[in-house]
Write a structure and sequence with these properties.
With 104 residues, the chain is mainly α. It contains four helices and no strands. The longest helix has 30 residues. The protein is rod-shaped. The two termini are 15 Å apart.
Length: 104
C-alpha cells in the first residue's frame, strides 16, 4: 500500500486518540515484513537455486544449494525491503493528523 494511504490511516488513528505515533509504525513494518518473507521464500529462494544449478560449473568448491551462499542475496533483499518499509512509515507517523486528514 502506498505511503500516502497509510498516512491517512495513521492520521485517523491519531485523531481517534492514539497517543504515540510510534505504535502505528510496527503495524506498517509488520505488513512489509510479511510481504518480504513471502517474496523471499516463494520467489527468491527457488530462483537462487535455479541460477545456482545453471552456474554450477563456475562455482568452485561451493555447492549450488549451500545455505551460506543462499543467505547473502536473501539477507540483502530482506534488509532493503524492510528499510523501504520503515522510511515511509516513519515519515507518515510524523505528519500532523489534521493535515493527513485534509490531504486527499
Amino acid at each position: 500500500m502506498p505511503w500516502h494511504r497509510r498516512t491517512r490511516e495513521i492520521g485517523i488513528r491519531m485523531a481517534l486518540g492514539e497517543r504515540c505515533p510510534a505504535t502505528s509504525l510496527p503495524l506498517v513494518i509488520r505488513q512489509g515484513a510479511l510481504q518480504t518473507a513471502f517474496a523471499v521464500f516463494v520467489g527468491n529462494m527457488p530462483l537462487c537455486l535455479l541460477i545456482g544449478r545453471v552456474l554450477a560449473s563456475a562455482l568452485f568448491g561451493i555447492s549450488p544449494a549451500d545455505p551460506i551462499v543462499l543467505a547473502h542475496p536473501i539477507s540483502i533483499l530482506a534488509a532493503s525491503a524492510l528499510i523501504a518499509c520503515y522510511l515511509p512509515a516513519r515519515k507518515a507517523t510524523r505528519v500532523n493528523p489534521t493535515e493527513a486528514l485534509r490531504a486527499e
